[in-house]
Write a structure and sequence with these properties.
Keywords: Signal. Helix content is about 20%, strand content about 30%. The protein is an alpha/beta fold. The strands form 3 sheets. The chain has a 20-stranded mixed beta sheet that branches. The longest helix is centred in the last third of the chain and has 26 residues. It is elongated, with a radius of gyration of 30 Å.
């Protein structure tokens, strides 16, 4: 517990004590003092309210005492808003078995302890400076909607949401999260019992948010869509986001993505015609083996800005029904990029015609970040003509007139290199050989 939390807890305890004593000394409303309905708006009446709306000034504490739990036992909707601090019974509102919807908004701090609302179906938290969320306890059997907006969360701990919750929707909108621990969000989404079908919005959505770190197994989504939109994710561990039985597909759009591995976002099983959309993102480091783009599932990788990637395994590892176009890659003299761009010139006839055609299309439909408006094919031509990376190129081996495949030329047939070109030449041959081996193995496995 931080010093800040200890201070606030101490202040709440003292104020609760003096507030209760003061109310009783004034002889207000019987022997138990003032009820929550003397402080909050209760409808339709103060005896058996169905809705309670507590709106305080930010300099005032809201104290919910043990004797208030009987009044709250019939409440279905509770709003806590604009309070400087809220003091709730340490044991939670165990008798509030009808309380299904809770809204918390416009506070500096709110601490949700496990078991606070045992029958909760919907929690909405908006404009909270710091949310401490310990988990839902018994409400994991009833929770259906979780919405966080314009809120800061230092840490989502293991067991925050468990697979037992019959979720419909989880939304993070303009939320800042420092860390999502392993096992924090273990989410299972279920169909609407009224019609047996899921609406398109069902699943886990993150929009306009910042998440600094997601540990392995931090987010698991079963039978629901995943949408991460216009957000910043600094560090995604291996297996950070796992989708099992993806319904509604997976969309990563308009994000800034930092450190990640090939399986940082991965799918185990798919449902129906679910597809993958990865578009408009900025990748600091794009994994060449990104799992979402290597399956037989239709996928789009469009309009992304990629700072660093090993182009050879990335381009040749794309699944057969993946559309990759209008992406911008770093074009420089790194052998990891030069080698694959010049593959046809160095090893003419190496690839099967359909592979060669697709490779040519990828080079024609994707671009360099710099020079601007230059396709990968155009940059390859600059390399061949030694306009780009002069002094760091292989002498080009001209493609044969015959369309039949030929064996790769030996090093003895290559023209001599000068200066520091030897290392680059070696890297090109090694990479191309690796690609050739990969293609042969793939063809064998298919046949």
């Amino acid at each position: 517990m931080t010093t800040r939390h200890k201070f606030l807890l101490l202040a709440a305890t003292l104020l609760a004590f003096y507030g209760t004593a003061g109310a009783q000394s004034r002889g207000a409303a019987g022997p138990v003092g003032r009820s929550i309905c003397d402080t909050c708006a209760c409808t339709p009446d103060n005896v058996t309210p169905v809705t309670v709306n507590c709106t305080c000034t930010k300099t005032k504490l809201l104290i919910v005492r043990e004797q208030d739990t009987a009044i709250l036992s019939s409440v279905r909707d509770l709003t806590l808003a604009s309070c400087g601090f809220v003091s709730l019974p340490s044991s939670g509102l165990s008798s509030s078995t009808s309380l299904a919807r809770v809204t918390v908004r416009d506070m500096k701090l709110f601490h949700y302890t496990a078991g606070l609302f045992p029958a909760l179906e919907s929690l909405s938290v908006e404009d909270v400076g710091e949310l401490v969320l310990d988990g839902f306890g018994p409400a994991n059997r009833t929770l259906r909607h979780l919405t966080l907006r314009r809120t800061t969360v230092l840490r989502l701990v293991k067991g925050t949401v468990t697979a037992a919750a019959p979720l419909r929707r989880v939304l993070f909108d303009r939320v800042d999260v420092d860390e999502i621990e392993s096992g924090a969000l273990d989410m299972s989404f279920v169909s609407d019992s009224d019609n047996g079908q899921q609406a398109a919005a069902d699943g886990f959505t993150v929009v306009d948010s910042t998440i600094k770190s997601v540990q392995t197994g931090g987010v698991t989504v079963r039978s629901g869509a995943v949408r991460i939109l216009n957000s910043t994710l600094d560090d995604l561990a291996s297996g950070a986001v796992v989708v099992d039985d993806a319904r509604g597909g997976i969309r990563l759009s308009g994000n800034r993505l930092g450190e990640m591995t090939g399986d940082s976002v991965s799918a185990i099983r798919w449902d129906g015609d679910a597809s993958v959309h990865v578009d408009g993102n900025v990748f600091r480091t794009l994994p060449a083996d990104m799992q979402l783009l290597r399956s037989e599932r239709p996928a789009e990788f469009v309009g992304n800005d990629v700072d660093s990637v090993d182009l050879s395994p990335f381009l040749f590892g794309l699944g057969p029904v993946v559309r990759a176009s209008d992406n911008r890659f770093t074009c420089d003299c790194d052998p990891r990029r030069i080698s694959v761009l010049k593959l046809n010139q160095v090893f003419p006839g190496l690839m099967q015609p359909d592979t060669d055609s697709r490779f040519a299309r990828l080079l024609a439909e994707n671009y360099c970040r710099q020079p601007a408006n230059t396709t990968l094919a155009g940059y390859r031509d600059l390399l061949v003509r030694e306009i780009a990376c002069k002094g760091a190129n292989l002498t080009v081996v001209q493609p044969p007139h015959s369309s039949t495949a030929q064996s790769p030329p030996s090093r003895d047939t290559a023209a001599p290199n000068h200066g520091n070109t030897v290392g680059t030449a070696t890297a090109v041959y090694v990479t191309a050989a690796a690609v050739a081996t990969s293609l042969l193995l793939r063809n064998l496995s298919v046949s």
